[in-house]
Specification:
This protein is 52% helix and 0% strand. By secondary structure, the protein is an all-alpha fold.
Length: 129
Amino acid sequence: PLRATARGALADHADDVRAATRCMARVLTSDRLAQEQWHDAAIAALESMGLPRPRSPGIGLAPATVPAHQRELQAALRARRLSAMQRPLLVRAWIDAAKGSALPSHAADALHLLCVALDVPAPDYASSV
């Protein structure tokens, strides 16, 4: 069902892209410092590709009723709504960020799984993470 609605650039789905990136940081490692390092590198790469800076939160919004990790996972799944030309940018930013981070060995497996989930061919260099 998400394939039928897949369209839009990184900027069109900025909130989902940011939440998916936070979710991926948690999946890649339990080391908080490595999570932050990877997340910051991925967001910087995505911003260089056109992801806008985050909007400031609205005033008076009701508190979220869904836990943060569940919202982030839902956002990761909504990242499939990116156009077929934009999804590889997301994957490339995540893989490039992993190259410069101290991630455990299973991170490459998680990144390959991400490629499958987003229907993006896994780059050759993903195995070198």
